[in-house]
Amino acid sequence: MTGAKDHHERSSTLAEDWTRFTPQQRLARYLGLLAAALAIGWSITSIDVIWAWVWDAPQQMGDLLGRMVPPDPTNLATILKVLWETVNIATIATAFAVLVSLPVAYLAAQNTTPNRVTLWIGRFILVSSRSINTIIWALLFVAIFGPGIVAGIVAIMLRSIGFVGKLLGEAIEEIDRRPVEALEATGASRMKVIAYAIVPQVMPTFWAVAILRWDINLRESTVLGLVGAGGIGIILQGAIDTFNWPEAAMVLLCILGLVVLGEIVAAWLRKRIL
Amino acid sequence: MSDKSYPDHWQKPPFIANPLLRWGVWLGVAAYVVTTIYALPIDWERVSQGLTRASRIFGGAFPPSFARSGLLIDGFLESLKIAILATFGGVLLSIPIAFMAARNIAPKPIFLLGRAIIILARSFHPVIVAIIFVKAVGFGPLAGVLTLIVYSIGFVAKMLAERIEEIDFGQVEAMRAAGAPYLSMLFYAIFPQILPRQIGLSIYQLDSNLRASAMIGIVGAGGIGATLANAFGRYDYDFALAITIVIVGAILVSEAISGRIRKML
Amino acid sequence: MLQITDLVKRYGAGEPVLKNLDLKIEGESIVSIIGSSGAGKSTLLRCINKLVEPTSGSIVLNGTELTALKGHALREARRKIGMVFQGFNLVDRLTVMENVQSGRLGYISSWAAIMRRYPKDDIRHAYELMERVGIAHYANKRADELSGGERQRVGVVRALMQRPEILLADEPTASLDPKTSEQIMQLLRDLSKELKLPVLINIHNVAEAREYTDRIVGMRYGRIIFDGLPGELVPEAMEEIYAGVPSQDRQQGTAPSAALKAAT
């Protein structure tokens, strides 16, 4: 999602004048192309696949999809109930993550962090949280807390702290310094300067990031069950393991509905709050 | 200044002006929090053992063991190959799909089909896609490549379609006026405008795919994720930690490289 | 009384921005500091409430030595010094009342501040001041909905809420159109008289300085080279303060205020 934003900014610098290249740039382009071709060639020739299966894959997929039709709604009531549980996992985890990420963002922002040590602590928390995927976190917490939604909530939470904390920290670094200066000049304590000059400026980002992450977490929480960390994934896994493809298809349809609905709700919230 | 009496009471105007709605929202939130927390199927007894288990896991994980580094490197290289091939395939497939999903180029029914493909590819988490491909084509990197192709289409085709929708149609008009056939119009008027974007997107997607390939391995789609899941399943926590360190390191390096390249472009 | 003695401010190893500067402000006069950009006006003002740390010298406000203060004692001293800024420095997303009350933050508990439960006296005082400057009906508006002149009034009220012993104003009119700028200067002069408050204003606009202030201090290269009544600011003195500065940057103007005042 942040990548999407990057792209917008960059596309303007990439500019339209693509044809006007100096010979040097032209050389760089050919080298880039060559490197890409080599990388692809190396991957194709050395990857460990049985090529007969590759040619067979479309037919296999077709078979599988054929077995999914028509979706079987017999267990729809259970599916919807667990789907609601999945929404709750995402919501609770997002709420906790957002709360925890506030102090982390405060530490990780250059202009608010008390000193260099705290800055690095903040950054370390952000990096380790962000670089480890939700599903890997889930794997760990299933081992710790046992299978169930606690592992799922904690996993989503830990992954979200890095995401929310990073964006929030950047927002803090970009605030307008002048109100801060003004409130310092009135003799207000650090705490009150934060509450009156920094918090109001960061609030819009805070809500936008919280909503964005909730939307992402909705998707993430649908797969937690595949490693035993609760939610709709457990039913999906069960259906797949028993080759009950019509039910699996039903679950997939429900997930699709949930994700689309989640996006609509997120868009609506964004419009209402911001 | 004057003896006039001034109000001594002030309250911040509430965010939701209508009091009924305001209290309704508060009540709703409170009810939601209470019921969900109450209804969550949590096995507290099992959870309470978490601390001892955590200490056992972390005790077993330190120091990380790089003894089986051969396995580790193989897994990592496989992830890299999966990411490269999936990026190549995904970006290639994204181009026609993006043209289908661009409102200003495609006829309505094709536009809807293109958008549907994109929505479908975006809505399902790669892990779900992976588990289906694993069932269809078997365990291993093939399932991984197919999964990440779908994943790439969801992002690249969407961004590209948006770019096509905002291109400058002056050039297209000019070509059309010159009586150029449809295909050469595509090549000479539209491709040049979207090409730089496409390169940036591909590099970004390669980075994303490398991240994702570490995770889909956990459900059997090959790569370092599979190595990690195996180590975890066999309680080799020290090896698992070593793998995790490598994954984190690789992600950081890949993020830095992709950022550097995209800045150069 | 504000007494500045031998004040030096140096950033890094470079030439000092303020060089052995002495200045004394007595009573409730309104004093303006003029000089071209880079003369050190803004640094001087910010040294007084220690937004900028002075390198050496002494600043005494009503018997308190300010330069050595730190932490809690510094915050307590700052409460007695009001400041008005060129860019208003309001918190855009808060209401006018919250902005005004933020001048009292030093006096109330954190809990009261966060919950917006301001003391009755403060609210009364805020309404009184806001009515005095003509913005009372905006109490519940967000600060970014106001015009520049209105925003600066909020800034002035915020500073006055501190019940300051001195008011510092750093280019308070530089972001405003000429008419609004005159109104703000007039307001500052009137408030100074009504509240018996000494006011120290950095100002670019020499015409406004002549018109609205009792005393003019001219700075150049970190030194005070003129200090006298507006009438004493003769062309030679002006030349000395602004020598080499293109005349359109001096903003001398020929009192456009006369016409404006007739209109208002």
UniProtKB/TrEMBL annotation, chain A:
Entry-linked SUPFAM superfamilies: MetI-like
Main location: membrane
NCBIfam families: PhnE
UniProt keyword Methyltransferase present: no
Keywords, sorted A to Z: Cell membrane, Membrane, Transmembrane, Transmembrane helix, Transport
Topology of this chain in the membrane: Multi-pass membrane protein
GO cellular component terms, semicolon-separated: plasma membrane
CDD domains: TM_PBP2
GO molecular function, one term: ABC-type phosphonate transporter activity
Transmembrane segments: 30-54, 89-109, 135-158, 193-212, 224-243, 249-269
Official protein name in the record: Phosphate-import permease protein PhnE
Family: Belongs to the binding-protein-dependent transport system permease family.
PANTHER family: ABC TRANSPORT SYSTEM PERMEASE PROTEIN P69, PHOSPHONATES TRANSPORT SYSTEM PERMEASE PROTEIN
Domain ABC transmembrane type-1, residue spans: 83-266
Compartments, as annotated in UniProt: Cell membrane
One family name in Pfam for this protein: BPD_transp_1
TrEMBL record, chain B:
All residue ranges annotated as the ABC transmembrane type-1 domain in the record: 76-258
This protein's UniProt keywords: Cell membrane, Membrane, Transmembrane, Transmembrane helix, Transport
Membrane topology designation: Multi-pass membrane protein
Molecular function GO labels: ABC-type phosphonate transporter activity
Major localization listed first in the record, in broad terms: membrane
Annotated TM spans: 20-40, 82-106, 127-154, 174-191, 212-233, 239-257
Record's GO cellular component terms: plasma membrane
Protein's cellular compartments: Cell membrane
InterPro entries: MetI-like, MetI-like_sf, PhnE/PtxC
Family affiliation: Belongs to the binding-protein-dependent transport system permease family.
Record's protein name: Phosphate-import permease protein PhnE
Organism: Roseovarius halotolerans
Classification lineage: Bacteria, Pseudomonadati, Pseudomonadota, Alphaproteobacteria, Rhodobacterales
Automatic annotation (TrEMBL), chain C:
Class of enzymatic activity (EC top level): hydrolase
Residues in ABC transporter domain copies: 2-246
GO cellular component, one term: membrane
Chain positions covered by the region annotation Disordered: 245-264
Keyword Mitochondrion: no
The keyword Disulfide bond is annotated on this UniProt entry: no
Keyword vocabulary terms for this entry: ATP-binding, Cell inner membrane, Cell membrane, Hydrolase, Membrane, Nucleotide-binding, Translocase, Transport
Gene Ontology molecular function, alphabetical: ABC-type phosphonate transporter activity; ATP binding; ATP hydrolysis activity
Pfam families xref list: ABC_tran
SUPFAM superfamilies (UniProt xref): P-loop containing nucleoside triphosphate hydrolases (SSF52540)
InterPro entries hit by this protein: AAA+_ATPase, ABC_transporter-like_ATP-bd, ABC_transporter-like_CS, ABC_transpr_PhnC, MetN_ABC_transporter-like, P-loop_NTPase
EC number: 3.6.3.27
Record-linked NCBIfam families: ABC_phnC (TIGR02315)
Designated name of the protein: Phosphate-import ATP-binding protein PhnC
